[in-house]
Structures are given as structure tokens and as C-alpha cells.
Amino acid sequence: MNSKFDEKLKEFKEYLSKLEYLESTIALLSWDSMVNAPRGGIGYRSEMIGYLSGEAYRISTSDKMKGFIEYFSECQDSDYIVKAMAEEAKRNYDRTKKIPENEYKEYTIASSNSTAAWEEAKEKGDFNIFKPHLEKIVNYKRKFVEYLGYKENKYDTLLDEYEPGITTKKLDEVFSEVRDAIVDLLNKIKKSGYTPNTDFFTKQFPKEDQKEFSEFVLKKMKYDFEQRGRIDESIHPFTINFGNKDVRITTHYYENDFRSALFSCIHEGGHAIYEQNITDTLKGTMLGKGASMGIHESQSRFYENIIGKTKEFWSYFYPEALKRFPQFEGITLDEFYKGINFVERSLIRTEADELTYSLHIIIRYEIEKELINGNIEVEDLPDIWNKKYNEYLGIDPKNDEEGVLQDMHWSDGSFGYFPSYALGNLYGAQFLNKMEKDLPHLYEEIKKGNLLHIHEWLKENIHKYGAVYKPADLIKKVTDEELKAKYFIEYLNDKYTEIYNL
Amino acid sequence: MNSKFDEKLKEFKEYLSKLEYLESTIALLSWDSMVNAPRGGIGYRSEMIGYLSGEAYRISTSDKMKGFIEYFSECQDSDYIVKAMAEEAKRNYDRTKKIPENEYKEYTIASSNSTAAWEEAKEKGDFNIFKPHLEKIVNYKRKFVEYLGYKENKYDTLLDEYEPGITTKKLDEVFSEVRDAIVDLLNKIKKSGYTPNTDFFTKQFPKEDQKEFSEFVLKKMKYDFEQRGRIDESIHPFTINFGNKDVRITTHYYENDFRSALFSCIHEGGHAIYEQNITDTLKGTMLGKGASMGIHESQSRFYENIIGKTKEFWSYFYPEALKRFPQFEGITLDEFYKGINFVERSLIRTEADELTYSLHIIIRYEIEKELINGNIEVEDLPDIWNKKYNEYLGIDPKNDEEGVLQDMHWSDGSFGYFPSYALGNLYGAQFLNKMEKDLPHLYEEIKKGNLLHIHEWLKENIHKYGAVYKPADLIKKVTDEELKAKYFIEYLNDKYTEIYNL
User: Please, which domain of life does this record's source organism belong to (chains A, B) (predicted)?
Assistant: First the structure.
């Protein structure tokens, strides 16, 4: 280290801090729009966000930023964190600088129109309303890939935005294994003829009681909402943060379903704990955030499914639920446990169970990949969609509303985003395998309602590093192996063989 | 008009819009800090606000701003609104540019330390803890007056920040009349020997019931909280806005007092209605805000006291209250009305009634004026304070906590702010006099619970203009006279003569 380097690093961090302040500010304005803002204020709010986004763009793409990137990428004194800072700044710089500003502006307008068209199309169940808009969006995305460049596969460039470093080649490998394993399990489950009872989940559960119980569970998970978090309500649940000391989640209560708000709270709690546990020293580096969308989902799904749907977890929490909810009188722990792990071949991704969920994602992945590479076109989508649902899940959408039109993601050009959800499952199972080795008393502790060991393990192995490591490096560092499908497949086989007595 | 002028005006407005976006953003961040933010996030929040304030400072004091100010101040094509824009920008520019940046930074640190010292001093009832800090603050303020310049009286320069154009000379004139009139009335009330009953206000009033009733009253006032507002809770009630389409108020419910939250809602509702009714076309001019602190207070106090404490108002609302609050059973409208207008010589400004409130303010005004002009020093304050309370209100603080240490304002250097509160009362009574002439059926309508005429009159005469007119010009425009004490004095005499049968 030398003083010139230190001085320049201090300047770099101060410069990146400005971006962090702006991003946190935009996040708070968005949170407020979704949770609080009166409708009349939304127009002006968009202008405010637009101005602040413009300022963030200006900083991200400035010559000053370019200077910092060049200096710290090549400087011998840069350690791995400083290198990661420069790399992250470069990803940001390239993404915004390589696409001509005018075209990007046209794209954002097209994207906003496309989302409106998608809403209308979904409502009317008419893909043709959406088609011309989606074609525009796909064309923009294909063009952007050319601007940004690609190596082996054009789709890789889009994946990189959400999952830095992952490739189509890797996804093809792991997703095809997972797909076959799930299809196989689904067939066995069908043959088993067994259907767990779930009626008791859809009695009346007053909002205030659900709220109290969700908070009880979140406290046990050590989501800190006394000092550094809070829970609000919004149409769709989400997690948002402004630094690591103000990390908020939202949920949506349905009084006729016990599961929805509870598992969404556990899920968002997983995201929130991740952000709360990122080490303070990453402030001002732009690395004080999750390593990727997929790693983030691995944390939320770890709590929601891998821990939150075990018998051990409910050994502790079911008696607590019984104290609060006489609605469950007469239902045994075993019935309850099988109920929350009920598997059903269904059409809607957001309502899917833990087992079938990844299939919904893999269908979307396979379609996106071909679409971006020009092997299929927008007009082919409804047919391909329906064929894949028939092939993998054995069910047929009655119309496009419950088929190709169900998700918003394509309407605003978020191609490459879907795989993160399924990657989260794979990462999670591989982390679990290592955690079980590191924590021999894991399940005994869970049975006692002690989730602190899990919290600490995730913090020490994953959370504290923020985005210092790329996903592939992180999983290697934590588990000593690269990403493999087998852990998730084994996990699923073990779990459902036991529940369905296969 | 010519195209060069139009082009340049468009640029000026775009530039001012940036300032408006930043100010609205800072306001939202502050609102969130006071209403929602977890404690852990406050440190980072201050950094965010600090960054955004710095950006606002940069724009306010830029050469570009200076160029606009010079061009539009002198341009023959500028109409009165453009002139007002340039003038407002100049006030802002001068205030920030004339004080050396370093000294201002030192001052803000001293001010933050001083506030902390004030808190401690107040808690311990020890003025000496606060004294050295307050001396620093006063010295800074005296120096700033020299930097900013002054004409007749040094204190005018500080007044100008809150009440553009008002002078010590004018305040001396109106405040001394008001002071004598109130002291006189207080003596008569004492002699009358009559004390209204207020016991029934301090029964138990559940928060939810108070909330519902406050919202009922606010709806009748036509505060739009469906589309453009909302009500939250905070330690101290306040109004804040981000543009004119998102104007929020807060309150604080005390279950053992019917009056506190209700009248604070009516008060804040008055502020909020003002902001909601500023015309849309002032967006991008920096004039889309109240004309001054005093005019703003005139609106809140108009609803809180001048309308909200009349017998006509409660002729409609008391039966509504009775429907909701059996706590008032057996209490007549007359008793209720006299109860809310109960006068008491008390020590604490924030708890004072409508009549004595202005005396509390005038005491502070008289002290501030002498202090800034160097006629008295910080060490003299406790004595002078106590003497004035004895002379005007006939009561003696037992200690400095209920004396000179009660308000926060001096600790952060807000000298010149207090007069606004009393000015609000004077403006309000003068507006009322004109309103009564314009609306001959005013009180009949109030009796029916119809407050729409008031809403419309205030909107058309005051609200819609925002800060286009200076307070003195506005009151002249609305009432055809300059500010006079006599309307407020007559209003007080009439009201209390009737209630106390003087």
C-alpha cells in the first residue's frame, strides 16, 4: 500500500457512495410508492425518481468513473475487494455506456407501453394485443446483446445481468438433470395415489393473528425488525433496503388462507436477513448487496422451503400455531406437515409448490434462450408454452391468461431473470449439504425452535461477503465444489419419497 | 414575449425543477425518518439527506443560477410571476452564498451540539449546561447578519428568512397593541371569577374512535386524503408535502385527552389544505409553497381556532361527537364550547390556549430582538424571561425547564421563527373580517357543517397563489389594507367578552 493508492481509493469510495445514496433514495421513494403514497402523488413521484435515476446514470457513466475503473483494475496494489469494486463499476459502466442513450430511452418507453399492453392482454386473455409490443421488446433485447457483445451464447449476456458469470451451457446441464428428476418424481407421486389434506388451511384466519404469528416466526429467525427493519403491507410482498441497517419487508394477508402471508414473510425474511448481515465495511464499495439474484433467492427459499417446510421446524412451531389458531384443532403435526408439502401439477408459477416450481422456471428458461437466439419467434410462444406444460407437467392451459400471459417479466424485458428462481433452489440444497456437515446438531436445534445456528452459518459463509464474490466463486468457496444439480435432486427425492411413501 | 425569452424561461424552470425534486426527496426522507424508519437506519439516513442537501446547495449557488437570476430580474419581458421566481432564487442564492461555506459548516456542527446540550440542560433543569452553546449560536447568528447585511434593524435580516419583508418596526407596532389588549383581557377574565368546566375532556377516549372522528372532521374541511394525502402518527404532529398532490399530516393520540389529537389534526389540516390548493402551474417555479411561515400559520390557526372553536362549528360537530363519544353525556353544547375556549395563565407555550398563546410569542420576540442586536446577552436570558412572564402573564416559572429552556428553537439557531406563530393569528383575524363581508351566510353554513365556502374562499384568495406574493402584498391584495392589529384584538374582545360575560 502507498499513500497515493490510499488517497485514490478514498476518492473512489466517496464517489461510489454518491451512487449508493442515490440508489437507496430511489429505493425509499419506490417503497413509499408501493406502501404509502396517495394515488394523486404518483405522477410527480415518477418525475422525482426519473431525476434521481438520471443523476445515478450520470455518475455511473462519467469519465471520472472510467478513470477509477481503469486505475483500480490494473493497479498492483488492488486487493480482491478493490478488484471486485472496479469490476462491478465496469459492469455498470459498460451496460449503460455501450447501448446508445437514445435507443435505451426508446426502449424504456416501449417497455412501459408493453407492460400496459400485457395487462390488457392478460385481462382479455388475448395474446394478440401483447404480441406486437413483445416483438418490439425482443428486438431491442437482441440488439442490446449485439451492442454488449457475447461469447458462446447470446442469452449469456442477459443472464449476466442477474447472475454474473453464469452461462447457458451450465444452465442447460443442471436444469436438464433437475427437469428429468422432477418429472420422474411427479409421475411416481401420481402413481402413489396419495393426496394430503389441506382443507384446514383455508378456514378464516384473522389478519391480526396472522400478523402476530408471522412476527413471532421472524423473530425466531433473527430478522431484526426492532432496530433495523419493519413489516408493512403491499399488494405483492417484497424486500427492500437502504443500507444494511434499514431492511424492510412487506406482505399481503389473506384471511382465508393460513399459508400465504406466513410463507411470504419467511421468504422475504430470508432476503432481509441476507441484507442485514452484509458487513458494514462494504459501505461505499457498491458491493454491499447480494452476490446475485440467484444467491438472494437461495437465501429466501432456504428459509421458506428447506427449513420452513421441514417436520423439525414445525415440531417447534406447530404447537405455537395451535396456541394461537384453534382452527387447527384435531389436526396432527404429521397432517399439518404433509399439508404444507402438498404437491400439485398446476398452471400458475406463483402458486406452485416447492417441487413443481422449478419446472415452471425451466420451461421459461428454455423458451427465453431460444427466443433471444432467434431460434423461435414471439408468434410461436403460446404454442411452445402449452406444449411444454403438457410435456413436463401433464396439464394444458385453457387459455393464454393462465398460459403464456401469466407473468409480467417479459413485458418489461426482464429476460434472463427467471433462471435465478430455480438457481436459488440448487444453491440452497448445495449449501444445506455443507451446513449439515458443519452443524451435526442442526435438526435437533431446529426442533427446539433455535434457528440461531443457521443464521450464524449463513452469515459467516455467505451473507457477510455481500457481492465481493461472484456466485460461482462463492459456491466454490463455501462448498468446495462448483454448482451441481445432484444436491437439489437428492434433497427432493428424500423429501418426497418420505412424504408420499414412494 | 419572444422565443429567446420563452426558451430561457423553459430552461430556468427545468433548472428550478431539479431543486424542487431534491427538496421533495429530502422531505420524503425526513417524513419517513419521523414516521417509519427503524432506529438503526437513522445514521445512514442522515448521510443520504446530507448528500442530497449538498446537491441542492450546489444548484442554488451555481453560476448558472446566478445567470438566470440576473437575466430574469432585469428582463423587460418578465411578468410578476417570473420576477417572483427570480427574487425567490436570489434570496436563496444570497443566503447561501454570502455566508462563507466553512463558517456555515462550523455553525451546523455547533448547532447540532447545541441541540444535544439543550436536551440535557432541559432534562436537568440547568441553564448553565446550555449557556456556552447558546452563546456560540448567538455569535454565529450575529455574524451572519453582518454578512447578509441589514438596513434598520439587525433582527430584520433573520425575520426575513421566515417572513419575507416583515420588519421589527412593524412587529413592534402590532405586537405591542396585541400584548396590551391581551393583558387587559386576562385581567378582566380573572376578575370575572368564572372558570369553565373541562373535566369531561380528560376521560378515556380510545385511539380508534379519536381517529375516526378526526378523519370525519378533516373530510368536512375538504382535506383530500383519499387521493392526495394521508394521516400517520409521530411524536409531534406536522405537515409535509412532496408537490401539491401528496400532502401528508401526522398527529399523536392521547387516550386521556379528547382535544389534543383532534385540534392538532384540524391545525395540520389547515396547513395541508393550503399546500393542496396551490395551483399546478406553479410547478417548476419554486413558488409552489406557502407565502411565508406566518401566512401558513394563519391558515392552520384559522381552522383550528377561528373556525374550529366557534359555537357554530360545534353546533354541527358536537352532535356528531355525541354519537361517537358517550363520554360527553350530560354535557351541553354551551358547556362544551366554553370548555374548549377555557383560558388559563400557564407557563408552557405549546400547551397555551388561544388567548394567551400570542403573549408567549411576544415575550420570545422581545427577547430575540434585543439579543440579536446585542442589547442583552445570553447570560441575562433566564432573568429576563422570568420577569416578562411575571409582568405579562402574572406567573413565575419555578425553574428554567418550565422557563427559558422549554423551546428547542434557539438551540438550532431558529431566531426569527417565533413571530410567525403570532403573525398567523393577526393575518387570520384580518382575513376573517374580509371573509365575513364576502360570505354573508358564513356562520349559517358552518352551523350546517358546510365548510366548503371557507375552503373555496381561502383557495381563491390565498392558497392558489402559493408564494407568488410576499405576505405584505398578499394581505393588501386580499383585504385592501396593510396588516393591522385591530382585527385580531376585536376578534379576541368579542369572543372572550361573550364567553366570560365580561
Answer: Bacteria
Q: For A15-81, give the DSSP string.
A: HHHHHHHHHHHHHHHHHHHHHT--GGGHHHHHHHHHHHHHHHHHHHT-HHHHHHHHHHHH-TT--HH
- pLDDT tens-place string over residues A247-274: 999 999 999 999 999 999 999 999 999 9
Alpha-helix runs per DSSP H in B154-258: 154-162, 168-192, 207-220
Give the per-residue pLDDT at B3: 87
Which residue ranges make up each domain of chain A?
A: 150-202+263-502
Q: Which residues contact B308 (CB under 8 A, 6 or more apart)?
A: B263, B266
Using CA atoms, how far apart are residues A98 and A160, in angstroms rounded to an integer? Answer: 15
Inter-CA distances, A221 with A264, A274, A291, A466, Å = 14, 12, 21, 19
User: Higher pLDDT residue, A439 or A112?
Assistant: A439
Annotated catalytic residue, options A20, A163, A268, A297: A268
Cα–Cα distance for residue pair A428/A462, rounded to 1 Å: 11
When CB atoms are compared, the residue of A21, A32, A47 closest to B48 is: A21
Give the Cα separation of A178 and A491 in Å (integer): 11
How far apart, in Å, are the Cα atoms of A378 and each of A135, A389, B398?
6, 17, 81
Residue in B with minimal Cα distance to A44: B243
Q: For residue A154, is pLDDT > 90?
A: yes
Q: For residue A265, give every residue at least 6 positions away whose Cβ sits within 8 Å of its Cβ, in sequence order, or none.
A: A214, A217, A218, A231, A237, A249, A251
Alpha helices, H only, B61-79: 63-74
Instruction: Check B28 against A28: CB less than 8 A apart.
Output: yes
pLDDT digits (tens, 9 = 90+) for A282-340: 999 999 999 999 999 999 999 999 999 999 999 999 999 999 999 999 999 999 999 99
Q: Smallest CA–CA separation between A230 and chain B, in Å? A: 7
Chain B environment of A37 (Cβ under 8 Å): 246
Task: Sort out which chain A residues have CB atoms less than 8 A from B243's CB and list them.
Answer: 41, 44
Helix (H, G, I), strand (E, B) or coil at A248: strand
Contacts of A383 (CB under 8 A, 6+ apart): none
A481 part of the active site: no
| Greatest extent of chain A over all pairs of C-alpha atoms, in Å | 72
Cβ–Cβ gap B40/A228 under 8 Å: yes
Report the mean per-residue pLDDT for chain B. 96
Sorted by sequence, the CB contacts under 8 Å of residue B3 that are 6+ apart come out as none
Could you tell me which CATH number the domain at B199-342+424-483 has?
1.10.1370.30
Tens digits of per-residue pLDDT, A345-386? Answer: 999 999 999 999 999 999 999 999 999 999 999 999 999 999
Interchain pair A246, B44: CB under 8 A = yes
Grid cell digits, residue B366: 422581545
- Cβ of B17 within 8 Å of Cβ of A51? The answer is yes
Where does the pLDDT of residue B81 fall: very low under 50, low under 70, confident under 90, or very high at 90 and above?
A: very high
Q: Which of B46, B167, B49, B119 shows the shortest CA–CA distance to B410?
A: B119
CATH number of this structure's domain A150-202+263-502? 1.10.1370.30
Q: pLDDT-derived band of residue B96, with 50, 70 and 90 as boundaries? A: confident
Phi-psi region of A390 (alpha: psi -120 to 50; beta: other; left: phi over 0): alpha
Q: Write down the pLDDT at residue A30.
A: 94
> Which cell numbers in the block locate residue B75?
428582463
Q: Is B101's pLDDT higher than 90?
A: no
Q: Evaluate whether B14 touches B59 at the Cβ level (below 8 Å).
A: no
| A contacts of B226 (beta carbons < 8 Å) | 38
- In whole angstroms, give the CA distance from residue B421 to residue B423: 5
Summarised one tens digit per residue, pLDDT across range B280-336 is: 999 999 999 999 999 999 999 999 999 999 999 999 999 999 999 999 999 999 999
Confidence (pLDDT) at A200: 98
